Structures are given as C-alpha cells and as structure tokens.
Model the fold of this input.
Amino acid sequence: MNKKQYDVKDLSLASAGRKRIEWASREMPVLKLIRQRFATERPLEGIRISACLHITTETANLALTLKEGGADVVLCASNPLSTQDDVAAALVEYGIPTNAIKGEDEVTYYKHINTALDHKPQLTVDDGADLVTTLHTKRSELIKNVIGGTEETTTGVIRLRSLERADKLRYPIVAVNDAQTKHLFDNRYGTGQSTIDGITRATNILWAGKKVVVCGYGWCGHGVALRAKGLGAQVIVTEVEPVRALEALMDGYQVMPMLEAARVGDIFITITGDKNVISKTLLQVMKDGAILANSGHFNVEIDIPALESLAKSKRRIRPFVDEYTLKDGRHLYLLGEGRLINLAAAEGHPASVMDMSFANQALCLEYMVRNQGKLEAKVYAVPEEIDKQVARLKLKSMGVEIDILTPEQEQYLTSWEEGT
Ligand SMILES: NC(=O)c1ccc[n+]([C@@H]2O[C@H](COP(=O)([O-])OP(=O)(O)OC[C@H]3O[C@@H](n4cnc5c(N)ncnc54)[C@H](O)[C@@H]3O)[C@@H](O)[C@H]2O)c1
Done:
C-alpha cells in the first residue's frame, strides 16, 4: 500500500485494535450475515468508497464488510476526538487506508478528509456531512465520479436537506439516520447508554440524587434522560418544541426553561444538534461545580468561547475534564472539550446497536450501486424493505420470533367494509 494514503498515530497499536474489532464483531450478527453474502456476491466490486465515520471497532467491522463486498475503501474521522487509535492502526493493517488520529487539530481533520477525497469516491459515507460539504464546496471537480452516498446522523441529514433545498445537492444520498432500525435504537439506546458511560468514565460521579439537565428531548435525549433516571438522578428536560416538551413531562421528567434549569442543575448534557444551547447568560448563573457535557454532533452546543471569556484560569484536572475558574470564583467543569462525550471519553455506542445502523449502511450502499443512474440528486429515505429486513435479522439473531398476520387479518387491516 502507498504509505501516503494513511495517517494514524502508531501502527504498533494494531494488534490491540484487531482484538477489539474481533470482540465487537461478536455483537454484530446482522452485519456478519451481510458480510458473508457480500463475500460471495461481491455487489461493490471495484467501487471506490470514501467513508468519514467515527473510527471505532464497529466502524472497522463495517469497513471490512464493504471490503468483503469488493469495495476499495478509505476512511477518515468524522470528529477530531472520536478516533480509537488502535483501531485506526489495525484498519491500516487490514489494508484499509485510514486517516485519523485522536485529538487531531482542525487543520489535520480537514487534511484527512481531503486525503479521503483524493481517493475519487464513487460512494461517500458520511457522519455529520463534513466530507460531503467539503466535496461540494472545495473539491466539486470530483463529484462527476460519485454514484451516491449515505449519511449516518441527524445533524448530517439536516445539513444535506438544507443543501437540497438550496438546489445545491449534486448526487443522491440516503439518510440512514432516518431508518427506524437506526434512530429508534442507536440514537435512543446507544447514545443513552454511551453518554452516561462517557461522563462516568471522565468524572467517576455518582448519578443518584444529582439534578441532571438534559437539553433536547429528541431520540438521543429520550435515551440519555431514561438512563440518567435509571441511575437515580432527578432529570430536568429543556425543549423548544411543545410536543416533545409535553412528552418529557408525561414521561415523568421536570420541564422548565433553560434559565431556570441553569440555576439548579448539577450536570448539563446538551443533545440538540443546535448551537449555543448553553449560552453565556446561562453560564453566569450556574452553581459552583456544575459539570457541562455535550453529546450532540458538533462542539457548538456549549458556548465555549463565552466560557473562556468568563474564566480567569483553566486546568485539566483529569483526562477529559477541564476545570474553568471563573472571575467570580465559581468553578465549571467542561468535559471532552465540548465534543461528543460518549466518543471522546468512552467508546461510543455498543456494537450490538451499531450492528443495525451499519447493516443499514451496507445495504443502502448496495442499493445505491444497484440503482445507479436511477436516483436523482435528493435526500432519500432508507427503503422500507431494508429497514424491515434489518429488524427481522436482528430479532432472529436474538432468538426472538413474532407472529404473522393471517390472510383474514391482512384483508381486515386493508379494508373499510367491516365495522362493529
Ligand atoms: N453522541 C452520539 O453518538 C450521537 C448519536 C446520534 C446522534 N447524535 C447527534 O445528537 C444530536 C441530536 O440528535 P437526535 O437524533 O436526538 O435529534 P432530534 O431532532 O430527534 O432531537 C433534537 C431535539 O433538540 C431540540 N432542540 C433544538 N434546539 C434546542 C434548544 N435550543 N434547547 C432545547 N432543545 C432544543 C429539538 O426540538 C429536538 O426535539 C444531533 O446533533 C445528532 O447528530 C449524536
């Protein structure tokens, strides 16, 4: 392999990475089935794929599946702090050029995205839309090669829909995030568990009795609130959308405006996909010792420049914990530099849930190739058949069977004639 094609922290970490990738694969039975079929059918034969994803053990299993399907895959990180360096090294050894180093600065981050684009992708796989945005704005001469792409997360789908509305999206992209077998499980149970895991690993706090403010009650917020409650925390939800606020209230949480929550919270977790959810005004009224964490896609949910401006000093008191001493004497603790805390301080989502997300990814990439030339430059939903297939296979792998409609029930459920 051309050495210039990859950039990882330390290749000697590869053997540790391999073992962890293997361990994750045990919890990814659906992807394993797809991988076995891909190995015989080779649906991606010779297709160049540039994938911008969190470089984790689960992503490695996806990349190996695509390679088994015949694809020529290169990887780069979708966040500067989410790379697992041992996995990146192992991927290089598996023959998948990877450009990702945990803690890379923004210049390196975009250099890595550009290296992935140098691959002249025919398919793009993105998580947050930084690769697709770079392709559309700075490397648009490469778009002529692209058949289509997929997008993994809510924030990426929002950006792509905006690009589509502006009439600037140049090729079809499937919104994998919007599959039911993705966001109902990955965003809710994956983000729920791993966000709590990240904060616990970073701080070793006891959750019981703490006032935890969950900002945003979307799919991820549902999961984070549920798991914090399960650990004995008093959960407060803040929202801007009335139906979701009402749902949070009836799910048993306190709901209040952020300014009120800011005064009482011990731990704040932003998970909105929005910016400046924790603004300067809010930082000014928080209790001494408050902990701030973000699990939304970008590091813009907490106004970090405002926090810097209020502080007279800052020190790293533990890995992933920065103590800000404010001019008024209070201390605020920012976790993971305001980046996705579940990936910065823990390992991201457990493999079992990524099994479904990445099964959708693999099947949607196959779908893109099979439908080459038939799709327009739009953001597409995951085909229902793929979504259902992933659910069926996951149930089967868990040894769970369900009922089947009788012909009589099928007829009844599609007719209007019968009433009481
Ligand atoms: N950490 C991870 O591993 C991970 C995994 C999946 C998704 N994400 C990211 O998490 C974010 C949320 O994803 P989701 O699927 O839950 O989205 P979602 O659209 O279902 O929910 C977001 C919620 O935030 C609310 N909101 C927006 N602005 C707000 C504000 N200022 N104050 C309070 N609430 C506000 C919205 O009304 C909405 O209910 C996105 O950035 C997504 O990309 C992260």
About this structure: Residues 153-155, 183, 187, 191, 215-221, 238-241, 244, 271-274, 277, 295-297, 340, 342, 348 surround nicotinamide-adenine-dinucleotide (CB under 6 Å). The mean pLDDT is 97. The longest strand covers residues 311-318. The two ends are 71 Å apart (CA to CA).
